[in-house]
């Protein structure tokens, strides 16, 4: 689930430059790269470490362009400077019925081809 820190990062990004470059996706996490779609959620992870995230929830819509800060296990962190948020990956990218799927923050996503 998205945390307050990511919303704070979105507010700060216009007022404060990023002090760290995005971390490119490591070779062992290459399956994460791509555009992922699920119910009311879009996640686009680029090889260079840029992440686009859109999610519709009751009462709020989130639309962020943010930097990858690294992986720990299957989960990954995004953010700017000292403000970070973790995307919790309960099912990492895997093939299912000929399609790539993963579950992030409780939402099953399918990678577009």
UniProtKB/TrEMBL annotation:
> Where does the signal peptide begin and end?
1-20
Q: Which UniProt keywords apply?
A: Signal
User: Does the keyword field hold Signal?
Assistant: yes
Can you say what this protein is called? DUF2147 domain-containing protein
What species is given as this protein's source?
Answer: Massilia norwichensis
